[in-house]
Amino acid sequence: MDKYMCRYISVRILYSSNKFQRQNGSTIIEAIVAMFVLSFGVLALMLAQITAVHTSVNAANQGEVTRAVQNYIELMNSQPKISLEVTEDAQKNKIFTLKKDFSDFNNKNCSALLNINLTNAKVKSCVIKDGQITVTWWGQILNKDDKNEDQNLNDKNLFSYSLTAGQS
Fold it and tell me: Which helix (H) or strand (E) holds 126?
């Protein structure tokens, strides 16, 4: 190594009242402090990485739920019951309107029906009622022992997505 690549820390150590010895390099205490500072910096970077992965997995789960709901809404829109509704105006003219009925699709547990595949998360509820699909799911499970129960997380880690069929 040339003289520009080496950096020396000069420290004076007192051995007796009159004699000083010059030391090049660092003491063991300085090396230990430097290791602690370095390890805390690496720890901070690891925590930032975990947070970033957690956020991206939750975003991927939201995309998966959105995809599943929109695909099923397409199916519902292609197969509704259609009825003819007749109303009269003030002059006794009949007005005919088509009405879509999605009651055949009503379901209180539709997660298997929609084929929702979440990463490190579970669907809490999935309901189809009168053409509206509402899916609620837990956020990413960080601990393998976490059962994602209401008393564990107090609903702080819930996500929800809702879409209604027949909207134009």
Answer: strand 123-129
